[in-house]
Amino acid sequence: MSTNNEVWVWAEQRNGRLMDVSLEILGKATELAGEIGGSTAAILLGDDVQGLAEELVAYGVGKVYLFSDRQLAYYQSDAYTRLISELVEEKKPEIMLLGATTIGMDLAPSVAARVKTGLTAHSCSLEIDNSGNKPQLIAAVPGWGGGMIVNILCPDHTPQMATVSPGVSEKPVRSDQGEGKIISMDVILNDSDFRVRTVEMVEQLPEGIQIDEADIVVSGGYGMKSAGGLEPLKELAETLGAALGGTRPVLDEGWIRESSMIGVSGKIISPKLLFSIGASGANHYSAGFTKAGKVVAVNNDPKAAIFDLCDIGIVGDVNEIIPVLIEKLKEQ
Amino acid sequence: MSLNIVVCVKQVANPDYFSEITLDPETGAIQREKVPSVLNPVDENAIEEALRLREKYSGKVTAISMGPPQAKEVLDWALTLGADEAILLCDRAFAAGDTLATAYVLAAGIKAICPVDIIFCGNEAVDGATQQVGPQIAELLGYPHVSNVKELIVNENKTALATRIIEYGHLKIEANLPVLVSVSREINEPRTATAEGIFSLMDKVFTTWSLEDVKVDEKNIGLTGSPTRVGKVYEQKNERQRLILEGAPEEMVNTTIEKLRQEELI
Description:
- By secondary structure, chain A is α/β, with parallel strands linked by helices.
- Chain A contains eight helices and 18 strands.
- The longest helix of chain A has 17 residues, at 20-36.
- The N and C termini of chain A lie far apart (64 Å).
- In chain B, helix 3 packs across helix 4.
- Classes of the chains: A alpha/beta, B alpha/beta.
- The interface between A and B is large, with 89 and 78 residues.
- Strand 10 (148-153) of chain A pairs antiparallel with strand 14 (229-235) of chain B, so a sheet runs across the interface.
């Protein structure tokens, strides 16, 4: 199947907001398109989202396929899958990327199964191999809890599809000089597009600085149990102007929200500085901060894996170290 | 109302032993001999949801899996917990499939026991964690689906209302049966096995289906049917300076702060 040499992204919107990861993958798509000598396009579905299409143009996309309809306001799996699959089959992009959000991870496999192509899940790195007779997308994914990285290829089918984890690439620079075209698509929907129907979306957006945006992150592990929870780390985070996150066991204890969990099944973070406190350093956690600039670890067990994964390791009891840390930081 | 319910399960490497999975330094092959296998954790919740639904109405729960002969263990577990029948799709020809080829074989197995009212899957397997097989089974069967479900209400008139997790919230989704539902761990508290359940095992129907028993196009199964290929596998590198401090808290903290200030990180 000959393709149009384009790299596509699905631009996800919720309540009229573009998801950050959609802009990040647009940045990656622009880079990949450069390497295969092609261009980029975004697919945007929603209700009254012309403004978001213009945003995508400002972020440098080549084309926006805009599907606008009142019934497309929320994610509707049947309708979204059909509209996207039909366009993919008609235009034949070489590569298609979707953000690995809870919704992207649902839409992508449906589209891949419909158009019968390969899909790589929550990729953490994307490269092009131009050595063969066609550009080959190499999508790396964390396996077995993140201890291994596996490269996945899709040699004979198109589009070469991948979902991409948040934080893998950077948003492109925004400019008002974007020259991309917005193509308004005719939307004809029928009953079979709504065998399942999203009737309501409830969102409680978190307040304050988030772990995937902050320059400094303080992360707590299950070792904070001896301190009765994360309270001491809240003060440390405040002192540093840092965001507070944690490991899976800490989430299971209810000390943080899902959106603050670091790791393969949570967020991949890349702060300039990470304090990891009371966490042993299991693979599925540590794979979430391989891109952190500097890692300071505090743990009472000198044999803990975290001490192989840090720049500065403090072997000691969290109950003794944290108060001193806060006091010294405040001293200036 | 009687419901024909299918629950898809997978045998996976025990996640507690993931750190023991290594690469053969010469061949680069994955070594996981020492790692015991278990039922994929969230599949317990899928089984539980299926059993509760059968108990509320009536009907039958069939557990299905694709895997090597030893995957019978996880199906036996499903039967012990209360599933009525179990089917293992087992053939060398099915092996090495990616999510699409795996979903194709599972869909073919489910087709053989259709009409089905509801199919349950766990939202993700802990090994590959792709979350792809559930939606792909649905797509290949022509069923609608809802993923990441933390609450499900099935009504007498074969309609359902699902609460589906998204970042920072949820979606409310209405559905008509038949539907495929991938569940999250929050959906229920799985039961444990009883002695009665263990004794019941010998009376239950366990079937193994090989390539000859299911209607599949051999082009679509195993490695041949997989659009993706696995390339290089390597261990996650996390190279750090590893300056490890021991001693008095105040000294360790002072050293740390000094270094971070030097680098203008704080």
